[in-house]
Prior knowledge:
The chain is mainly alpha-helical. The chain has ten helices and two strands, in the order αβαααααααααβ. It has a two-stranded antiparallel sheet.
Amino acid sequence: SVASGAARSIDPDNLLYSRAASYQLPAEMIRDNALATSGLLVHRLGGPAVRPYEVAVSFKPVKRDDGAGLYRRSVYTYWKRTGPAPAMMALDASKRDICVVKRERTSSPVQALVMLNDPQLVEASRVLAHQLVKKHGENSGQIAVEAFRRLTSRRPSDGEKQLLVQLYQEQLGHFSTNLEAAAALLATGQARLAGELPADQVAAVTIVVNMLMNYDACVMKR
């Protein structure tokens, strides 16, 4: 999406499709990516519709599933035609009560609020955080690098890594003196993980991962 001067000179009319506009990934891809990077995504193909967290708070609530039904690909999500999931709608999923030729693409603060607070994404963040702390212990630098690489498919620059480590240290200081807040954060979602790890550390990494899931490099197609 960022073309060099040489590319524009060689192909001014973009006949070679050497460049294209950047845009936010579709709602389904954002959700599925979070589940995949955390290891929660269920890869089974086919079967009936499932009811993840979103349907329990839709405009026409439906009792959510338990277990694997919460973590299947978004294409299998149960959807009432006139009662869509608010989180998916905020991320520009199309309504089903009218024919839509092309989805709208918007950018609003509501989308950031969804990605930072949706139970599915917070749960995925804490599951990935648990894996990172279990693997790297107190090495915040390695945690920052692997989290960034998993979510953006590249290694962070020195500046990006420094910011992530700084955020981690700030959150660790907060949760170490607010263990109840750490416990509440780590109770989000149904997934239960084996192995006892320091709650304040896992909660701090959860915030870092959750922030990265809302980062431009993670949700934008370029």
